[in-house]
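From the shared-data thread, chain only:
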Amino acid sequence: MTPLERIRALALALPEATERVSHGEPSWFVRKAPQFVSMADHHHDDRVAIWAAAPPGAQADWVGRDPSRFFVPPYLGGRGWIGVYLDVPSADDTEDGKFWNDVADIVEEAYRTVAPRTLIRKLDEDSR
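Structure, as tokens:
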């Protein structure tokens, strides 16, 4: 499974999440408006990454854990978003590997950061 396919599966598993192109890249939204994750090759630097909304303090926490995998993305970093490189060697771990578990956590937290409370309750109910 490619990184895009993995991100797509994680994002679209969330209640009322949709995918559309934004700024030339696949992006995921909650309902019609709030974007919570975007694929990123905006600067054509040959780095495959996602940018994700994040709750307060999460950006510094992730970057502090491993700055070779997590970064402050341009433009949205000032709003607390987190960047995740998907082209690092640890991204080749199995689907059960720690890297993809971290990515799944980041995608879910991004969703929770922008989703309305009704959808967060639905997500919590569905995960019981």
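Residues 98-114 form the longest helix (17 residues).
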